[in-house]
Design goal:
The structure is a homodimer of 314-residue chains.
Chain A lengths: L22 E7 L3 H12 L3 E7 L3 H9 L5 E2 L2 H7 L2 E4 L6 H8 L8 E4 L5 H11 L6 E2 L1 E3 L20 E4 L7 H13 L3 E4 L2 H27 L4 H7 L2 H7 L6 H10 L1 H23 L3 H17 L12
Parallel strand pairs in A: 1-2, 1-4, 2-3, 4-5, 5-6, 8-9
Antiparallel strand pairs in A: 7-8
Helix pairs in contact in A: 4-5, 7-11
Chain lengths: 314, 314
């Protein structure tokens, strides 16, 4: 990825776009895969000026600076005072204290946005922490990830062809929402607007439940007396089914707690479906088993990812 | 893949090994991915003479012959009378009637082997169908697969680096077991001997349960009123977690019924683990949630597939 000095008169080769930066000063709290990839994509497009990195891990910030992602580092208070847009790209559990820390220092025109996997809980925390500055918070969720973590995993193509859900608040200025959406479009993403509650229900189903099921399944295998033999004989089905169980425990603890009600509701329905399989097996109900399996197999075969990996080869 | 005429004086270029064929006449019942890949690997190694294809679908057999996998086709009775080894590579539900059909025609030295995903049930069917010829049946299970099906998916490298479980019967002649094992080793596989009950318990856990969970999860998503929106927003986690839910319903119906007791036992334990997640979420028990997630994530990160895909690039 190309670094930028962030100077207004910077080398044109480093700023392929001749337009003025969309974001003169960008602050990113949490310069890992998500935040770092956002920076990398905006830098490549020449749509960002100076980038300030904020985080608790000084070594990680130094690495992000060495990679040319960020120009300098700052405290939350200083970043809030200097930035035009602040992207919060930490685990969602860290957000309440961040809202508290930045709000007293925000300039009136500054936009705060996030990349959290849940929205109702984050919005509640923002309302609590930002009070009458809540109009400055534009909630968002980029649907992208990777098995890799940290600034070294930052990839200017991470968001290309991916969906970013924006869940505007009634208080938001239309121009602020449009600016956040333009930033994500500049990263190559498609923006979808959704109500926060609808967002949380959908992602409880298609993202959080698969993670919970994969985690729980691996727990059960690991607890077996012959776990070592099981793991030694596991093949490609196991590999793909459990890939997401290797995800960050801290991040998923936060997501599970943050979206608890929607997840519990979906989990109860999945458990009822497992009961249907159990009953069909126990009672040798072959027609019921056939109907369940045919429905699942047809649904999965008909499904096409919104952004298949192959299409990312641009 | 190279075809073989199966003639003793065949072109040496088509028989790279100068040794006599390990299997002068091989019959394969079900010339799909599994059976076809077995043939392709043995042909490439020059260790098979004539190959007879058996199946209910004449068009599929014609395709296998056009691809050079099989030399000709025969009925079950004729194949049994002519073959030195018969590989049964059909869904396990078809095996009982096949054992009945072949047994009266088997020559005393002929070896019958299979590729079924369950072993106790297949062995019981073989004992039922083969009676006092049971010593001629050597049970086996190659741990390999693909999303592709049929003779066109046959791949001489499918078994390279993979494990094949052989579950010998007390009645088997040691030389017959060794011959089946040598055939799989010739295909590039590693052979592991296991007791049939231990095999079924292990594969109920690391293969059958992931499939059941993936099928049930997709059923639950498909049944939601907003299923279309859910599927439209599903990403790479969903893609990998549910890949195996696109598998053949007929094949998995047979496997689930064939290994019912072991699967029900594992399923009950997975459901208890899901209950533990539910309880931790409902009671806001963060230490318990952290412990579960850390255990699963560490187990999955430490896991290495027996034959990672990358190592297949030979």
């Amino acid at each position: 990825m190309s670094a930028s000095t962030g100077q207004p008169a910077a080398d044109p080769a480093k700023h392929p776009s001749s337009t003025s930066p969309l974001i003169p000063v960008l602050a990113v709290v949490g310069v890992g895969l998500i935040g770092g990839s956002f920076i990398a994509a905006l830098r490549r497009a020449g749509r960002v000026g100076r980038v300030i990195g904020v985080g608790r891990n000084a070594q990680a910030l130094a690495r992000a600076q060495a990679l040319g992602l960020i120009d300098d580092t700052a405290s939350l208070a200083d970043a809030a005072a200097r930035a035009d847009i602040i992207l919060l790209a930490t685990p969602v559990g860290a957000l309440p204290s961040i809202f508290d820390a930045i709000t007293p220092h925000l300039r009136p025109g500054t936009i705060v946005t996030d990349a959290g996997s849940t929205k109702q809980d984050v919005i509640a925390a923002a309302r609590q922490g930002m009070g009458d500055r809540i109009a400055q918070f534009v909630p968002a969720h980029p649907i992208a990830g990777s098995d890799r973590h940290g600034a070294d995993a930052a990839d200017p193509d991470l968001y290309r062809g991916r969906t970013v859900v924006v869940a505007p608040l009634v208080e938001n200025r239309a121009a602020d929402v449009a600016k956040v959406e333009l930033a994500w479009v500049t990263c190559g993403a498609t923006v979808t607007r959704m109500d926060a509650a609808a967002h949380d229900a959908v992602f409880a189903s298609v993202s959080h439940l698969p993670h919970l099921l994969a985690f729980a399944y691996v727990n059960q295998v690991a607890a077996a007396p012959d776990a070592a033999m099981r793991l030694a004989l596991a093949g490609t089905g196991f590999r793909d089914f459990t890939r997401i169980a290797g995800s960050s425990p801290e991040m998923w603890r936060d997501i599970f707690l943050s979206n608890r009600q929607a997840i519990l509701s979906e989990l109860a329905q999945v458990q009822a479906t497992l009961d249907a399989y159990r009953d069909a097996l126990q009672s040798d109900d072959v027609p019921q088993l056939d109907a369940l399996l045919a429905d699942a197999s047809e649904t999965r075969r008909a499904w096409r990812p919104a952004a298949p990996t192959d299409s990312l080869e641009v």
